Prior knowledge:
The structure holds two protein chains of two kinds. By secondary structure, chain A is an all-alpha fold. Chain A has seven helices and no strands. Chain A has helices spanning about 5-25, 30-50, 55-80, 90-115, 135-140, 145-165, 190-200. Chain A starts with a helix and ends with a helix. Chain B is built from three helices and no strands. The longest helix of chain B is centred in the last third of the chain and has 31 residues, at about 60-90. The chains are: A mainly alpha, B mainly alpha. At the A-B interface, helix 1, helix 2, helix 3, helix 4 and helix 5 of A face helix 1, helix 2 and helix 3 of B.
Amino acid sequence: MNKLELAFFGLCSVIALLGAIVTVGAKNPIRGAMGLLSTIIGIAGLYLMLAAEFLAAIQLLVYAGAVVILFLFVIMLLGPSAQSKRDARGAVARYVGAAAMLVSGLGAMVLVMRTQSGTPTALPAAPPQFGTIESIGHELFSTALVPFELSGALLLVAVIGAVAVARGKQVDPTLLPAADAKPSQAPSPNARTAGQTKEARS
Amino acid sequence: MTVPLEYFVIVAAVLFMTGAVGFLIRRNLLVLLMSIELMLNAVNLTLVAFNRQHVGGHTGQIFTFFIIAIAAAEAAVGLAIVLAFFRLRSTVRSDDADLLRN
C-alpha cells in the first residue's frame, strides 16, 4: 500500500488515540476538553482518508466548533469546582468494572480478527461523486428527508430544554431591591422590579 | 492499494474502549460527558469506514450526519443538567447525584 497514505493514517490515528487517553486520564477538565478536540481533529483526518469530505467539515464545525466550546464554557463557568477531588470510595468496584469492559472488548477484537481469512480487506476505488456535499445533500433531501426534518425538530426541542433546565429559579439575593421590605408603599420607580422579585420568588 | 478497512475498524474499537473505560472509572460529570462523545465518535468512524467499503450508497454517512446532530443535542442538554446539578449541590461528582436514592 501507499507509504504516504499509511503515514497519514498513522498520524491521524495517533492524534485521535492520544487525545482520547488524555480526555479520559486528565485530572483537569480543561485538559480533557483539549484532548477531546485532538481526538476530533484526528477523526476528521480519518474521514478525509475515507472519502467523506462533507462529514470531515461537519465534524470540525459541529464538534470542534460547537461541542468542545460549549464544554469549555461550562468548565470555565464552574471554575475551580469543575475539578472534583480525589476520593477512594468505591474505587475497587470501578476499576474491576473497567477491567472487565477492557477484557471483553479486547477479547471481542481478537475473536473477530481470528475469523478473518488473513489478508486485509482492500477498499474499492471510490467514484468521484462519493462523499461530496452534492451527493450527500441529494440523498439527504430525497431518501432521508423525513429524518432530516425530524432532526431539525429534535435540535429545537433540545435547545429549548437546555435553556429551561439550565436557567433555574434562584435569584441572587444581592440583586433584590430594598423596596421589597415596604410593600404598602405607593407605586414608585422601582415598583416594577418589586413585581419581578415577587414573580421570581413564587 | 489503499489502507485496508480493518485498520480503521481497529482504531475505532480502541477509541470506543477508551471512552467506555473512562466512563466507568471517572466520577467527574464533565469527563463522563466527554467519554460519551468519544464513544459516539468511534461509532461514527466505524459507520463511515463500512460505508467506504460499499461505495454504491451513502447510508453510513447519512447515519453519521444524524448521529452528529443528536450528539450536539445531547451535549447541550447534558451540560444544562450538569449546570442545574451544580447549582443544587455545588459539586460535579457523580457520586453526589443521589437525590433519587431511598
